[in-house]
Amino acid sequence: MGRKGAIPAIATAVVLAVVCIATGYSGWINSYGDSAWTVLGWNFLAILAGAGAAVFGMVGFHLLTRTTYASAEELFPSLSHADFLRALKEEPRPVCVCTRCLIHIPAQFSTGGCPRCNSSVEYLEIHTDEDASMAAAAVS
Ligand SMILES: [Zn+2]
Questions:
Q1: What residues does the ion ligand 1 have nearby, CB within 5 Å?
Q2: Does the bond joining 77 to the residue before it have cis omega, within 30 degrees of 0?
Q3: Higher pLDDT among residues 19 and 24, named by residue
Q4: d(Cα 140, Cα 65) in Å, to the nearest integer?
Q5: What is the pTM of this model?
Q6: How much is the average pLDDT of 68-90?
Q7: Can you tell me the distance from the alpha carbon of 19 to that of 41, in angstroms, rounded to the nearest whole number?
Q8: Region 55-65 average pLDDT
């Protein structure tokens, strides 16, 4: 079950919640004059359905919010040499680049080191054209 499993789980939760409300309501109207057994039966169903709804709801919510993290290589694919040089010139600055992996990351997402090779030596923050030419020199 991946993220798709969340939909049937939440759908089940919604159905059970409706059953819970319906049976709870039946229990409530039947509590006037009807036998105690009927009232108990309806309320028992309502509690069961409510519990089921809670469980399925939580499972569905969990599946929905679970994030599968891609590997750093997938998140930050290496650029070709030419694309890397172009990114140095054209990416909005500040931008962080790793001259070993040939990747670039917007500086606001940067953690101070390359997310792929963890290098902080080959990892440069580009603010100015001088920074950019330094990085370009490092890869040529
Ligand atoms: Zn790197």
A1: 98, 100-101, 114, 116-117
A2: no
A3: 19
A4: 43
A5: 0.52
A6: 88
A7: 13
A8: 85
Question: What backbone torsions phi and psi does residue 120 show, to the nearest 5 degrees?
Answer: -110, 0
Task: Give me ligand 1 centre to Cα 99, in Å.
Answer: 7
Split at pLDDT 50, 70, 90, the class of 66 is confident
Q: Where in the chain are the domains?
A: 2-65, 72-139
Q: What is the largest CA-CA distance in the chain?
A: 89
Helices (H), 31-92: 36-65, 72-75, 81-90
Give the distance (Å) from ligand 1 centre to CA of residue 63: 32
Q: Which two tokens stand for residue 74?
A: 């997938």
How far away, in angstroms, is 131 Cα from ligand 1 center? 17
pLDDT, average across residues 80-104:
93
